[in-house]
Amino acid sequence: MSAVPTSTLPRCTRTIVLDVLFMRKYALSYTQISVLYYLLMLKNWVKFKENNFYVILSKKIETDLQMHPKTVEASITKLKKLHLIETKRVKVESWNRHRTYRAIAITTLGREYNLSHYKEKDFQQAIELERENEAYRVQNDAVESKNRELESQNRDLELKNKSLNLQSLLAIKPLESEASAPKKREEKKPTTKKGEAKAVVSEKSQDVEKDMDIFRKKIIKKFAQSGKTICNGVANQERWAVDTKFYINSYSRLSIYTPNGAFKQIANPQQVANFWAWLFEHQHRVGRLIESEKVANIGGLLKFIGQSISVNNKTYILQSLKAVLGGVKVYLLYEGKVIELKNSHESTVIDIEKCKKWLEGCVV
Predict the structure, then answer these.
(1) Structural contact between residues 315 and 329, judged by C-beta atoms closer than 8 angstroms
(2) Could you tell me the pTM of the whole model?
């Protein structure tokens, strides 16, 4: 095997420029920042490259940065998960024609490092909006809490209106003839108006519960036999990690496989009920796994930014969308305040398909 050059790194690149905003944005450690900045400087001295990929040996990185091999590899893995770098294997025939070597390219996100003062105007405005969102977050929580109370009151009023409408219908129902009325009263005792109203109001919820029960039994039967994953990326009240996978175990009970490698059955009845309610509403996610290492693609939603959205007889402006693991976060502007949208399960991470259908139905 031919020798591989191991010359030391030029002195001009031993100084690291620390971009604090970038470091906070991606929650990077000083070690990970050191590796990223080192990789950014490859273009200044690495001789072997293919397109935008520069060939660099792990031993070279370890020697130049005086880091342990496991530390270097852990940092590179973290940067790849954040889509700040990309890697692939290439051949360098002048080194060894039978081996492949790792080549690293800095992505568009990674090249934003230390460029905070040179951003385009639109991107700079987005950064400023993020800061404003952070400042309004506490106020938004109070507003959203108030909105939930109002929604609860509205639901109560709707139920009362349905009850009143039913009573009105019963009041104007044509009267039976005096001759036939006594006979009918003997055959069947009339149900009270209050009881009939309650029956009509609960009829819809009973139908939904029945459909959900049928759906649940169908999923349990199918996935208990196959042992396959039902789904991941469940965004509801329980705040599950995106890569938590849901299964049906051999006892036909809902179970999870956690990111830490633990497989366990969910014993909390409320957590089980919340899961089935979410899955029933997101039936298109059954049997589909989202990639937990990549943020969602929101290209199909960008056309809605800046448009007016009508929600509960109020008009909002869709200010921005943020792609995250498992879905998208939606920010609306109303009377000068930024509101982060939540789904019906109290999660700010909204399914891409659900979000698209909702926006198409709410755009004014």
Answers:
(1) no
(2) 0.37
